[in-house]
Design brief:
The chain is of the alpha/beta class and 237 residues long. The chain has an 8-stranded parallel beta sheet, covered by helices on one side. Strand 6, helix 7 and strand 7 form a beta-alpha-beta unit. Helix 1 packs parallel to helix 9 and helix 8 runs parallel beside helix 9. The longest helix has 18 residues. It is globular, with a radius of gyration of 17 Å. Bound molecules: 2-phosphoglycolic acid. 2-phosphoglycolic acid binds next to strand 8.
């Protein structure tokens, strides 16, 4: 399973370093075998000792150049960062990234061999319009994306579940994941209001290969508890 934390615009460089030290000590002590990823803010990117895959929350499809406020490949290479989140709902809906821009980013970082955690998810009005509308919406978010890319991970994150404390029912997560799995044969994470209290039951669902956690992972102790859930489920405990 893949257990991933997205810090968004939270924690500083100093706090991230402290977080990583606690996390790595935990992984080592417990002999964790699951894949763990952390996406800190850009200012906290660094080479950390240990086995966590540290990724960037965003980057521009360029090596370098005149793109004020953006990061390119050159800045990521400095820290050995080779994992990226693309298509996150906040990039799509708050920053207004179009599917075309997202697909361009995807192609660029695919070309560079990055592990790409590619996010999709529908807003509430689409969910309320029924299953066909929902699947059509998700399908449109896959446009221009190479679904056979070796290092692709998909994260299904309903927009209305992100940061709201709301989640789809377990049955709905299972249904949507089953449908998505038929479409894309890649690891499929669930994201949107995953917390210590519900991580285990979500991770236990069929077709859920991991979780992408935002606010629920900001305290490292909580993130470690979710990793432990994944580890014990994996062992059948
Ligand atoms: P949340 O965010 O866990 O705070 O809902 C998840 C995400 O946006 O990746």
């Amino acid at each position: 399973m893949i257990i991933a934390a997205n810090f968004k615009t939270n924690l500083t460089r100093q706090k991230t370093a402290e977080y990583m030290a606690v996390l790595e000590a935990f992984l080592e002590k417990e002999g964790v075998t699951q894949e763990v990823m952390v996406f800190p803010p850009a200012t906290a990117l660094d080479r950390f000792d240990g086995r966590t895959q540290v990724g960037t929350q965003n980057a521009y499809p360029t090596r370098n150049g005149a793109f004020t406020g953006e990061l390119g490949l050159e800045q990521l290479e400095e820290f050995g960062t080779d994992t990226i989140l693309i298509g996150h709902s906040e990039r799509r809906h708050v920053m207004g990234e179009s599917q075309e821009e997202i697909a361009r980013k995807f192609s660029f970082y695919k070309e560079k061999g990055f592990t790409i955690v590619y996010c999709i998810g529908e807003p509430l009005e689409v969910r309320e319009a029924g299953n066909d509308a929902l699947m059509d919406y998700l399908e449109a978010q896959l446009e221009g994306i190479d679904l056979h890319y070796k290092k692709l991970v998909i994260a299904y994150e309903p927009v209305w579940a992100i940061g709201t404390g709301l989640t789809p029912s377990l049955g709905d997560i299972e249904l949507i994941h089953a449908a998505l799995k038929q479409r894309v044969a890649k690891p499929l994470l669930y994201g949107g209001s995953v917390k210590v209290d519900n991580a285990r039951e979500i991770l236990a669902l069929q077709h859920v290969d991991g979780i992408l956690v935002g606010s629920g992972a900001l305290a490292v102790e909580d993130f470690c508890r979710m990793i432990r859930d994944a580890e014990t489920l994996h062992k059948g405990e």
